[in-house]
């Protein structure tokens, strides 16, 4: 590995929240424009079959920060207020190796101010429900219930009454949108980059740095600045795919609920949300360009490796579903780019790798780049080996999510996908090579392939505390858990 000085390479992990993998120009999306993200990919490697095994914020971020699978972290569903006491974290291992570490933006850990191994956290988690409940937090200052750093800054700039809910959009509403009501410079996306640029100014120049720059958007609320919304509001936007296996019935008119999971949303309402979602991605893209310019000004761009990734996707109307957690491509497939502007790693740039990778692979990859030992608690693998032609990579990804009646498990190798709904027994099989939009359920036609994947799932679930299988067959209706009892949260485990 070559470098421009005798320090280890700097590392920037750019995380976005709820961004679909297909919403990039380089993925040939028909309307979304992402020139700076495209350039990150052109200066590195794009992993086209990257997945979130447990596609909601908390469990996904646990795998990113620990390198562990969802069964090792114990987080197989979404549950807040579960302490993060992992023995080994990405930032903690880099600190041990002499890195100056900084997190800016979203963490979504518990307690909210948990450092998770970083030297410092400048925090904005968005609307953190459990800390926003004033009737349960009377002992805290009402102006800053979350310990959030963005909110008091916003109040100092826009007025003491300014808050996240002023715009009238729910933080989980994927079907409604409106433009940001304040100057663009006050938007949380711009704030994350402003704080990140300030870190370049105040970092320790005698150490390599690790910066986790974590955006809350394009997670709802869908509130892009007007200039970005205007880029998309009048375009002919793509129609979401709806499979032949989908019921379009919406007797209770759930589509009228702004935070619906499924339903028939009024066309104009949905088009505004779709345009705003795309606009938020382009806003992030432009701010990444702003940060890269600052890196050049501070002379660190060519000695920095950049990883760009999302914690999960957004269904955005696919198969009449919204939000995330479900096993379909819009929800589980994520952007995953390893960019090397200074050619420090001497990889073949502007290439695409199709092997299945997962969020747990981030920690071992970045430790590998820093030449730091990977703890034996880590389940993931360094994707650098893939870049160098490793032919012993994993064959598939096992994903899952406890989700009430929609609790499920999925398996994919990037070519096929098998889904089992644990509460109903419904099985689905998709040929992703011929049907990337998952329009045709092949479970009744491809019995041999269905049996093949079912046996793999039985193997994966054998011994699980929920009792999903006896090693011979799958059992329907076993109660799913958000948190496994045999988790690995602390060093005492």
UniProtKB/TrEMBL annotation:
It comes from the Bacteria. Pfam families: Sulfatase. Keywords: Hydrolase, Metal-binding. The keyword Metal-binding applies. Gene3D superfamilies: Alkaline Phosphatase, subunit A. One of its GO terms (molecular function) is arylsulfatase activity. The keyword Metal-binding applies. CDD domains: sulfatase_like. Residues 9-372 form the Sulfatase N-terminal domain. GO terms for cellular component: cytoplasm. SUPFAM superfamilies: Alkaline phosphatase-like. Its EC number is 3.1.6.1. Belongs to the sulfatase family. This is Arylsulfatase.
């Amino acid at each position: 590995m070559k470098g421009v000085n005798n320090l280890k390479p700097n590392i920037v992990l750019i995380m976005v929240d709820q961004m679909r993998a297909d919403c990039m120009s380089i993925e040939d999306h028909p309307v979304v424009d992402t020139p700076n993200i495209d350039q990150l990919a052109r200066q590195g490697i794009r992993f086209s079959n990257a997945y979130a095994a447990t596609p909601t914020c908390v469990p996904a971020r646990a795998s990113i920060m620990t390198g562990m699978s969802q069964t090792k972290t114990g987080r197989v569903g979404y549950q807040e207020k579960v302490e993060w006491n992992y023995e080994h974290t990405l930032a903690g291992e880099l600190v041990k190796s002499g890195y100056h570490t900084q997190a800016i933006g979203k963490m979504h850990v518990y307690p909210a101010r948990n450092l998770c191994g970083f030297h410092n956290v400048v925090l904005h988690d968005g609307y953190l429900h459990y800390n926003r409940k004033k009737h349960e937090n009377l002992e805290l200052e009402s102006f800053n219930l979350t310990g959030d750093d963005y909110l008091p800054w916003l109040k100092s700039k826009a007025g003491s009454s300014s808050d996240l809910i002023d715009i009238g959009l729910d933080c989980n509403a994927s079907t409604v949108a409106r433009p940001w009501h304040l100057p663009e410079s006050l938007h949380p996306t711009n704030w994350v980059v402003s704080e990140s640029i300030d870190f370049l100014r105040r970092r320790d120049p005698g150490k390599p740095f690790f910066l986790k720059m974590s955006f809350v958007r394009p997670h709802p609320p869908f509130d892009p600045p007007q200039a970005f919304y205007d880029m998309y509001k009048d375009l002919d936007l793509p129609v979401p795919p709806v499979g032949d296996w989908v019921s379009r019935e919406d007797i209770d008119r759930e589509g009228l609920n702004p935070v619906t999971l499924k339903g028939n949303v009024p066309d104009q309402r949905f088009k505004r949300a779709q345009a705003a979602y795309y606009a938020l991605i382009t806003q992030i893209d432009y701010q990444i360009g702003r940060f890269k310019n600052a890196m050049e000004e501070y002379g660190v761009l060519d000695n920095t490796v950049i990883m760009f990734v999302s914690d999960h996707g957004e269904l955005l109307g696919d198969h009449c579903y919204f939000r995330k957690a479900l096993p379909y491509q819009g929800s589980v497939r994520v952007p995953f780019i390893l960019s090397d502007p200074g050619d420090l790693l001497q990889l073949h740039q502007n290439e695409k790798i199709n092997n299945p990778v997962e969020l747990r692979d981030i920690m071992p990859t970045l430790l590998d780049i820093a030449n730091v030992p990977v703890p034996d608690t880590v389940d993931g693998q360094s994707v650098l080996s893939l870049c160098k032609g490793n032919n012993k990579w994993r064959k598939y990804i096992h994903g899952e999510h406890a989700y009430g009646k929609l609790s499920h498990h999925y398996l994919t190798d990037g070519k096929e996908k098998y889904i089992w709904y644990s509460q109903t027994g419904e099985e689905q099989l998709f040929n992703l090579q011929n049907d990337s939009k998952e329009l045709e359920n092949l479970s009744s036609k491809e019995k041999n392939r269905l049996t093949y994947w079912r046996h793999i799932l039985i193997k994966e679930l054998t011994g699980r505390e929920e009792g999903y299988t006896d090693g011979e067959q799958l059992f329907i209706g076993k109660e799913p858990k958000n948190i496994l009892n045999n988790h690995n949260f602390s060093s005492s485990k």
